[in-house]
Write a structure and sequence with these properties.
The protein has 11 helices and 4 strands, in the order αααβαββαβαααααα. It is mainly alpha-helical and 323 residues long.
Length: 323
Amino acid sequence: MTSAVSDVGGFRPTAPPGPSAPTPIGVGAIDWGQQARLGGLRRFAFAITLLNVVGHVFLGFETSWAHPLAALATGYTVELLLETIDARARRTKPRYLTGSFGGFVDFLLSAHISSLAVSMLLYPNEHLMPVVFATTLAIGSKLAFRVEIDGRTRHFMNPSNLGIATTLFLFPWVGIAPPYQFTENIAGPWDWAFPLLVVTTGSFINARFTRRLPLLLAWLGGFAAQAWLRHWLLGVALVPALGPMTGLAFLLFTFYMVTDPPTTPTSKRNQILFGLGVAATYGLLMAWHVVFGLFFSLVIVCGIRGGWHVAASLLGRAGPRSV
Protein backbone atom coordinates (compact mmCIF):
# COMPACT_ATOMS: atom_id res chain seq x y z
CA MET A 1 0.00 0.00 0.00
CA THR A 2 0.50 1.92 0.23
CA SER A 3 -0.60 4.97 0.64
CA ALA A 4 -1.38 1.58 0.15
CA VAL A 5 -2.38 3.79 0.76
CA SER A 6 -2.66 7.36 -1.27
CA ASP A 7 -1.35 10.74 -0.83
CA VAL A 8 -2.77 13.91 -2.16
CA GLY A 9 -1.84 17.49 -1.45
CA GLY A 10 -3.54 19.82 0.94
CA PHE A 11 -6.61 21.88 0.00
CA ARG A 12 -6.03 25.10 -1.88
CA PRO A 13 -8.81 27.16 -3.45
CA THR A 14 -8.44 27.41 -7.22
CA ALA A 15 -7.26 30.81 -8.44
CA PRO A 16 -9.80 32.81 -10.47
CA PRO A 17 -9.43 32.51 -14.26
CA GLY A 18 -7.62 35.10 -16.27
CA PRO A 19 -4.15 35.81 -17.51
CA SER A 20 -3.13 37.55 -14.32
CA ALA A 21 -4.27 34.79 -12.00
CA PRO A 22 -1.30 33.38 -10.04
CA THR A 23 -0.47 29.72 -10.43
CA PRO A 24 -0.73 27.98 -7.06
CA ILE A 25 2.65 26.50 -6.22
CA GLY A 26 2.13 25.42 -2.62
CA VAL A 27 2.79 22.00 -1.23
CA GLY A 28 -0.53 20.64 -2.36
CA ALA A 29 -1.16 22.34 -5.67
CA ILE A 30 -2.78 19.93 -8.13
CA ASP A 31 -5.08 20.35 -11.08
CA TRP A 32 -7.77 17.73 -10.93
CA GLY A 33 -11.33 18.77 -10.05
CA GLN A 34 -11.37 20.71 -6.79
CA GLN A 35 -14.56 19.21 -5.44
CA ALA A 36 -13.64 15.70 -6.57
CA ARG A 37 -10.22 16.11 -4.99
CA LEU A 38 -11.55 17.27 -1.69
CA GLY A 39 -14.25 14.62 -1.71
CA GLY A 40 -11.66 11.96 -2.40
CA LEU A 41 -9.40 13.30 0.35
CA ARG A 42 -12.16 13.20 2.94
CA ARG A 43 -13.31 9.72 2.03
CA PHE A 44 -9.79 8.38 1.87
CA ALA A 45 -8.92 9.94 5.23
CA PHE A 46 -12.04 8.41 6.78
CA ALA A 47 -11.31 5.01 5.23
CA ILE A 48 -7.68 4.82 6.39
CA THR A 49 -8.62 6.06 9.86
CA LEU A 50 -11.33 3.43 10.15
CA LEU A 51 -8.95 0.73 8.90
CA ASN A 52 -6.34 1.67 11.50
CA VAL A 53 -8.84 1.70 14.35
CA VAL A 54 -10.45 -1.58 13.30
CA GLY A 55 -7.00 -3.03 12.65
CA HIS A 56 -5.70 -2.29 16.12
CA VAL A 57 -8.93 -3.29 17.88
CA PHE A 58 -10.07 -6.34 15.88
CA LEU A 59 -7.87 -7.37 12.97
CA GLY A 60 -4.58 -7.94 14.76
CA PHE A 61 -2.22 -5.11 13.79
CA GLU A 62 1.20 -5.95 15.21
CA THR A 63 2.34 -2.44 16.18
CA SER A 64 1.16 -0.54 19.25
CA TRP A 65 -1.19 2.42 19.40
CA ALA A 66 1.89 4.60 19.98
CA HIS A 67 3.01 4.14 16.37
CA PRO A 68 0.04 5.79 14.61
CA LEU A 69 -0.13 8.48 17.29
CA ALA A 70 3.58 9.29 16.85
CA ALA A 71 3.15 9.32 13.07
CA LEU A 72 0.16 11.68 13.24
CA ALA A 73 1.90 14.06 15.63
CA THR A 74 4.94 14.14 13.35
CA GLY A 75 2.91 14.51 10.16
CA TYR A 76 0.79 17.39 11.45
CA THR A 77 3.83 19.22 12.83
CA VAL A 78 5.94 18.89 9.67
CA GLU A 79 3.03 19.82 7.38
CA LEU A 80 2.24 22.99 9.36
CA LEU A 81 5.91 23.94 9.69
CA LEU A 82 6.69 23.52 5.99
CA GLU A 83 3.57 25.39 4.93
CA THR A 84 4.52 28.28 7.23
CA ILE A 85 8.03 28.42 5.76
CA ASP A 86 6.73 28.13 2.20
CA ALA A 87 4.11 30.82 2.72
CA ARG A 88 6.67 33.24 4.17
CA ALA A 89 8.99 32.59 1.24
CA ARG A 90 6.15 33.35 -1.18
CA ARG A 91 4.84 36.19 1.02
CA THR A 92 1.36 34.73 1.07
CA LYS A 93 -1.02 33.60 3.77
CA PRO A 94 -0.55 30.01 4.99
CA ARG A 95 -3.23 27.74 3.62
CA TYR A 96 -4.21 26.46 7.07
CA LEU A 97 -5.33 29.97 8.05
CA THR A 98 -8.66 29.70 6.28
CA GLY A 99 -10.75 31.27 9.01
CA SER A 100 -12.69 28.09 9.68
CA PHE A 101 -12.01 24.87 11.53
CA GLY A 102 -13.22 22.85 8.55
CA GLY A 103 -10.66 24.46 6.28
CA PHE A 104 -7.91 23.75 8.80
CA VAL A 105 -8.95 20.09 8.93
CA ASP A 106 -9.07 19.88 5.12
CA PHE A 107 -5.51 21.22 4.96
CA LEU A 108 -4.26 18.44 7.27
CA LEU A 109 -6.01 15.60 5.43
CA SER A 110 -2.99 14.90 3.24
CA ALA A 111 -0.63 14.65 6.22
CA HIS A 112 -3.20 12.53 8.04
CA ILE A 113 -3.34 10.00 5.19
CA SER A 114 0.43 9.82 4.72
CA SER A 115 1.10 9.43 8.45
CA LEU A 116 -1.36 6.60 8.95
CA ALA A 117 -0.14 4.84 5.80
CA VAL A 118 3.44 4.90 7.06
CA SER A 119 2.60 3.67 10.56
CA MET A 120 0.32 0.94 9.18
CA LEU A 121 2.77 -0.49 6.65
CA LEU A 122 6.10 -0.29 8.52
CA TYR A 123 7.07 -2.72 11.27
CA PRO A 124 9.93 -1.33 13.40
CA ASN A 125 9.22 -3.61 16.38
CA GLU A 126 8.76 -1.39 19.45
CA HIS A 127 10.80 1.51 18.05
CA LEU A 128 9.08 4.78 17.18
CA MET A 129 11.89 6.73 15.51
CA PRO A 130 11.74 4.84 12.18
CA VAL A 131 8.08 5.81 11.91
CA VAL A 132 8.92 9.42 12.80
CA PHE A 133 11.71 9.43 10.20
CA ALA A 134 9.54 7.92 7.46
CA THR A 135 6.67 10.31 8.17
CA THR A 136 8.96 13.35 8.16
CA LEU A 137 10.46 12.30 4.84
CA ALA A 138 7.02 11.59 3.37
CA ILE A 139 5.65 15.03 4.22
CA GLY A 140 8.88 16.85 3.40
CA SER A 141 9.16 15.20 -0.01
CA LYS A 142 6.14 17.17 -1.22
CA LEU A 143 8.19 20.35 -0.94
CA ALA A 144 11.60 18.88 -1.81
CA PHE A 145 10.76 16.92 -4.99
CA ARG A 146 8.88 19.32 -7.21
CA VAL A 147 8.80 19.96 -10.93
CA GLU A 148 6.74 21.94 -13.41
CA ILE A 149 4.12 19.75 -15.11
CA ASP A 150 1.56 21.23 -17.51
CA GLY A 151 2.45 24.73 -16.39
CA ARG A 152 2.05 24.05 -12.66
CA THR A 153 4.56 23.15 -10.01
CA ARG A 154 3.80 19.95 -8.10
CA HIS A 155 5.52 17.13 -6.24
CA PHE A 156 6.24 13.97 -8.20
CA MET A 157 7.31 11.41 -5.56
CA ASN A 158 4.57 9.41 -3.86
CA PRO A 159 5.03 10.70 -0.28
CA SER A 160 4.19 7.74 1.95
CA ASN A 161 5.74 5.25 -0.47
CA LEU A 162 8.98 7.25 -0.57
CA GLY A 163 9.11 7.41 3.23
CA ILE A 164 8.51 3.67 3.55
CA ALA A 165 10.96 2.65 0.81
CA THR A 166 13.74 4.92 2.08
CA THR A 167 13.33 3.64 5.63
CA LEU A 168 13.47 0.02 4.45
CA PHE A 169 16.61 0.81 2.43
CA LEU A 170 18.48 2.73 5.13
CA PHE A 171 17.50 0.58 8.12
CA PRO A 172 17.65 -3.13 7.21
CA TRP A 173 16.38 -4.12 10.65
CA VAL A 174 13.05 -2.39 9.90
CA GLY A 175 10.57 -4.58 8.05
CA ILE A 176 7.23 -4.24 6.38
CA ALA A 177 4.08 -5.01 8.33
CA PRO A 178 3.26 -8.73 7.99
CA PRO A 179 0.41 -9.15 5.49
CA TYR A 180 -1.45 -11.53 7.77
CA GLN A 181 -2.12 -8.73 10.26
CA PHE A 182 -4.97 -7.45 8.10
CA THR A 183 -6.98 -10.67 8.40
CA GLU A 184 -5.42 -12.43 11.39
CA ASN A 185 -8.48 -12.33 13.62
CA ILE A 186 -11.27 -12.79 11.10
CA ALA A 187 -12.59 -16.02 9.63
CA GLY A 188 -15.51 -17.48 7.71
CA PRO A 189 -17.45 -15.08 5.47
CA TRP A 190 -15.26 -12.15 6.56
CA ASP A 191 -12.27 -13.73 4.79
CA TRP A 192 -14.06 -12.78 1.58
CA ALA A 193 -16.18 -9.85 2.71
CA PHE A 194 -13.35 -7.69 4.01
CA PRO A 195 -11.16 -7.85 0.86
CA LEU A 196 -14.30 -7.35 -1.24
CA LEU A 197 -15.05 -4.21 0.77
CA VAL A 198 -11.55 -2.88 0.07
CA VAL A 199 -11.90 -3.60 -3.66
CA THR A 200 -15.38 -2.03 -3.82
CA THR A 201 -14.52 1.16 -1.97
CA GLY A 202 -11.18 1.49 -3.75
CA SER A 203 -12.80 1.06 -7.16
CA PHE A 204 -15.43 3.67 -6.32
CA ILE A 205 -12.87 6.24 -5.14
CA ASN A 206 -10.63 5.71 -8.16
CA ALA A 207 -13.55 5.83 -10.61
CA ARG A 208 -15.45 8.73 -9.07
CA PHE A 209 -12.75 10.95 -7.55
CA THR A 210 -9.19 10.17 -8.62
CA ARG A 211 -10.12 9.01 -12.16
CA ARG A 212 -7.21 6.59 -12.21
CA LEU A 213 -8.96 3.42 -13.40
CA PRO A 214 -6.78 3.12 -16.55
CA LEU A 215 -3.67 3.21 -14.39
CA LEU A 216 -5.15 0.73 -11.94
CA LEU A 217 -6.12 -1.75 -14.66
CA ALA A 218 -2.75 -1.35 -16.41
CA TRP A 219 -0.94 -2.09 -13.15
CA LEU A 220 -3.02 -5.21 -12.50
CA GLY A 221 -2.62 -6.46 -16.07
CA GLY A 222 1.09 -5.66 -16.04
CA PHE A 223 1.57 -7.48 -12.75
CA ALA A 224 -0.05 -10.61 -14.14
CA ALA A 225 2.02 -10.28 -17.33
CA GLN A 226 5.34 -9.98 -15.49
CA ALA A 227 4.47 -13.03 -13.40
CA TRP A 228 3.81 -15.04 -16.57
CA LEU A 229 7.01 -13.77 -18.22
CA ARG A 230 9.11 -14.71 -15.20
CA HIS A 231 7.46 -18.13 -15.26
CA TRP A 232 8.15 -18.55 -18.99
CA LEU A 233 11.67 -17.08 -19.13
CA LEU A 234 13.10 -17.86 -15.68
CA GLY A 235 11.16 -20.94 -14.63
CA VAL A 236 9.49 -19.23 -11.68
CA ALA A 237 6.43 -21.08 -10.40
CA LEU A 238 3.40 -19.25 -11.77
CA VAL A 239 1.06 -19.59 -8.78
CA PRO A 240 3.51 -18.08 -6.24
CA ALA A 241 4.37 -15.33 -8.73
CA LEU A 242 0.69 -14.42 -8.91
CA GLY A 243 0.15 -15.03 -5.20
CA PRO A 244 0.70 -11.46 -3.99
CA MET A 245 -2.42 -10.40 -5.90
CA THR A 246 -4.56 -12.37 -3.42
CA GLY A 247 -3.25 -10.51 -0.37
CA LEU A 248 -4.94 -7.58 1.30
CA ALA A 249 -1.65 -5.65 1.43
CA PHE A 250 -1.45 -5.86 -2.37
CA LEU A 251 -5.04 -4.63 -2.67
CA LEU A 252 -4.31 -1.65 -0.44
CA PHE A 253 -1.22 -0.80 -2.50
CA THR A 254 -3.21 -1.16 -5.71
CA PHE A 255 -6.30 0.86 -4.84
CA TYR A 256 -4.86 3.43 -2.43
CA MET A 257 -1.16 4.01 -3.18
CA VAL A 258 -0.14 3.43 -6.79
CA THR A 259 -3.09 5.54 -7.99
CA ASP A 260 -2.12 8.66 -6.01
CA PRO A 261 -3.41 11.54 -8.21
CA PRO A 262 -0.76 14.25 -7.66
CA THR A 263 2.15 11.89 -8.42
CA THR A 264 0.66 10.05 -11.41
CA PRO A 265 -0.18 11.17 -14.97
CA THR A 266 -3.57 12.57 -15.93
CA SER A 267 -4.08 11.38 -19.50
CA LYS A 268 -5.30 7.82 -20.06
CA ARG A 269 -2.34 6.95 -22.28
CA ASN A 270 0.22 8.10 -19.74
CA GLN A 271 -1.68 6.43 -16.91
CA ILE A 272 -1.44 3.12 -18.75
CA LEU A 273 2.28 3.62 -19.38
CA PHE A 274 2.81 4.49 -15.71
CA GLY A 275 0.96 1.40 -14.46
CA LEU A 276 2.80 -0.89 -16.88
CA GLY A 277 6.09 0.76 -15.92
CA VAL A 278 5.59 0.02 -12.22
CA ALA A 279 4.68 -3.60 -13.02
CA ALA A 280 7.69 -4.05 -15.32
CA THR A 281 10.05 -2.55 -12.74
CA TYR A 282 8.62 -4.85 -10.09
CA GLY A 283 9.24 -7.84 -12.36
CA LEU A 284 12.87 -6.81 -12.87
CA LEU A 285 13.40 -6.35 -9.13
CA MET A 286 11.94 -9.79 -8.47
CA ALA A 287 14.20 -11.33 -11.13
CA TRP A 288 17.15 -9.73 -9.33
CA HIS A 289 15.86 -11.03 -5.95
CA VAL A 290 15.26 -7.56 -4.48
CA VAL A 291 12.82 -7.61 -1.57
CA PHE A 292 10.07 -5.05 -1.00
CA GLY A 293 9.70 -4.74 -4.77
CA LEU A 294 6.29 -3.05 -4.65
CA PHE A 295 7.59 0.00 -2.83
CA PHE A 296 10.92 0.27 -4.64
CA SER A 297 9.33 -0.09 -8.07
CA LEU A 298 6.95 2.80 -7.42
CA VAL A 299 9.80 4.98 -6.16
CA ILE A 300 11.83 4.24 -9.29
CA VAL A 301 9.00 4.98 -11.72
CA CYS A 302 7.99 8.17 -9.90
CA GLY A 303 11.63 9.28 -9.97
CA ILE A 304 11.93 8.54 -13.71
CA ARG A 305 8.74 10.48 -14.40
CA GLY A 306 9.98 13.44 -12.37
CA GLY A 307 13.38 13.34 -14.10
CA TRP A 308 11.67 13.27 -17.48
CA HIS A 309 9.71 16.43 -16.69
CA VAL A 310 12.82 18.13 -15.31
CA ALA A 311 14.70 17.35 -18.53
CA ALA A 312 11.75 18.47 -20.67
CA SER A 313 11.53 21.73 -18.73
CA LEU A 314 15.26 22.42 -19.12
CA LEU A 315 15.19 21.63 -22.83
CA GLY A 316 12.14 23.79 -23.29
CA ARG A 317 13.81 26.75 -21.63
CA ALA A 318 16.93 26.25 -23.76
CA GLY A 319 14.95 27.06 -26.92
CA PRO A 320 13.91 25.21 -30.08
CA ARG A 321 17.44 25.09 -31.52
CA SER A 322 18.85 23.33 -28.46
CA VAL A 323 15.91 20.93 -28.39
